[in-house]
Amino acid sequence: MGMALSLGRRGLGRVWPNPNVGCVIVRPNENGGRVIGRGWTADGGRPHAETRALDGIDADGATSYVTLEPCAHHGKTPPCVDALIGANVGRVVIATGDPDPRVAGKGVAMLRAAGIDVITGVREHEAREDMAGFLLRVTENRPFVTLKLASSFDGRIATATGQSKWITGPDARRKVHAMRAGHDAVLVGAGTVRADDPTLTVRNTGAVRQPVRVVASRRLDIGAANLLATLGDAPLWLCHGANVDAQKWADLGAKTLACDLQGRQIDPVDMMHKLAASGLTRVFCEGGGSLAASLLGAGLVDEIVGFTAGIALGAEGTPSIGALGLDVLDDAPRFDLIETTQVGADIMHRWHRASLHLGQKTHPVGPISR
């Protein structure tokens, strides 16, 4: 199962709206078994891991290790359950169930009805972490959200004059590009676009499937020269409020998503619902401070990745997170430390939301294409 999990991670950022599944086929022998097939969900979400692992092999009597319950419905591809049954495998070992109501236990039931031994719950916690984006999209109608903060050790992202390039070093920036590649989309606010005119593409990591670039801008009052110049390299989606000229951006090639407002800002909950309905499962937010605060205040941040540099900018610098309106310490969002490591001259620290729960309750999110 460890190999299947590792294979599944190859699909992070590449298979949405489908889950990043891994599968390994093992022929039992006196030494415990020999791997005869392996696969992971292909770019774009299909073919699925099981059919790729079964391709070109004789799996009669073999054991299939798969990280998610095999699909049991006819979508754009035939059910993986039928492929496993047709291959006459002897056993299927599953890490975690699929909450998609079209599957949700039906895959396991069909396998057992065909006389196949089924074991579930093997390394389930790891599988649910790896596929958190897919699971949250189905159960909570939103993507998994990672908030990236690159700041001085006193929590500043720019000087009083707005200078921010570069607080962290080149190793940290390369790491950020790799993290972008592991997400379906990169999200920033309008202020970041106006200040930095970023491209938000993945660079210097070899050939990759570029993430969607998402900009949250209530009035669409952005220049976005570099985002528009690179539309041929990566999609651009714009989340905006009402009564704006979104058509001119659509005519330029951007996708526009009208979102509800919360006061004078885009409602972050509705924005995440709209992104989930459009297929996104994993979003990498790179600021700015106001957008970070709105996501944190709405309880939408599942992971924080901080890169802290050995530099102090002082109280007059721009804080990495905007105002949260907190009066009581107990109301502050809490996160659990997962990892701390040195990246070049900087420190990277990863935190998971303490209350993150990947339950089984499902919500309608639009087409689930598996």
Automatic annotation (TrEMBL):
Residues annotated as binding NADP(+) are: A150, W166, T192, D196, G288, G289, S290, L291, A292, A293, S294
For this entry, the protein name equals: Riboflavin biosynthesis protein RibD
Provide the GO biological process annotations: riboflavin biosynthetic process
Q: Which Gene3D superfamilies match?
A: Cytidine Deaminase, domain 2, Dihydrofolate Reductase, subunit A
Oxidoreductase found in the keyword field: yes
The prosthetic group or cofactor this protein requires is: Zn(2+)
**Top-level taxon of the source organism:** Bacteria
Catalytic reactions of this protein: 2,5-diamino-6-hydroxy-4-(5-phosphoribosylamino)-pyrimidine + H2O + H(+) = 5-amino-6-(5-phospho-D-ribosylamino)uracil + NH4(+); 5-amino-6-(5-phospho-D-ribitylamino)uracil + NADP(+) = 5-amino-6-(5-phospho-D-ribosylamino)uracil + NADPH + H(+)
Coiled-coil parts of chain: none
PROSITE patterns according to UniProt: CYT_DCMP_DEAMINASES_2 (PS51747)
Role: Converts 2,5-diamino-6-(ribosylamino)-4(3h)-pyrimidinone 5'-phosphate into 5-amino-6-(ribosylamino)-2,4(1h,3h)-pyrimidinedione 5'-phosphate.
- Which family would the database say this protein is a member of? In the C-terminal section; belongs to the HTP reductase family. In the N-terminal section; belongs to the cytidine and deoxycytidylate deaminase family.
What are the catalytic residues?
A: E50
EC identifiers of the protein: 3.5.4.26, 1.1.1.193
Gene Ontology MF, one: 5-amino-6-(5-phosphoribosylamino)uracil reductase activity
Which key words are in the record?
Hydrolase, Metal-binding, Multifunctional enzyme, NADP, Oxidoreductase, Riboflavin biosynthesis, Zinc
Q: How is the cofactor bound?
A: Binds 1 zinc ion.
Pathway-wise, it operates in: Cofactor biosynthesis; riboflavin biosynthesis; 5-amino-6-(D-ribitylamino)uracil from GTP: step 3/4; Cofactor biosynthesis; riboflavin biosynthesis; 5-amino-6-(D-ribitylamino)uracil from GTP: step 2/4
Which SUPFAM superfamilies does UniProt cross-reference here? Cytidine deaminase-like, Dihydrofolate reductase-like
InterPro entries reported in the protein's UniProt record: CMP_dCMP_dom (IPR002125), Cytidine_deaminase-like (IPR016193), DHFR-like_dom_sf (IPR024072), Eubact_RibD (IPR004794), RibD_C (IPR011549), RibDG_C (IPR002734), Riboflavin_Biosynth_HTPR (IPR050765)
Domain called CMP/dCMP-type deaminase: residue spans: 1-119
Kindly give the CDD domains that the UniProt entry links to this protein. Answer: Riboflavin_deaminase-reductase
Which residues are noted in the entry as substrate-binding?
Answer: S164, R180, L200, R203, E286
Q: Where does Zn(2+) bind?
A: H48, C71, C80
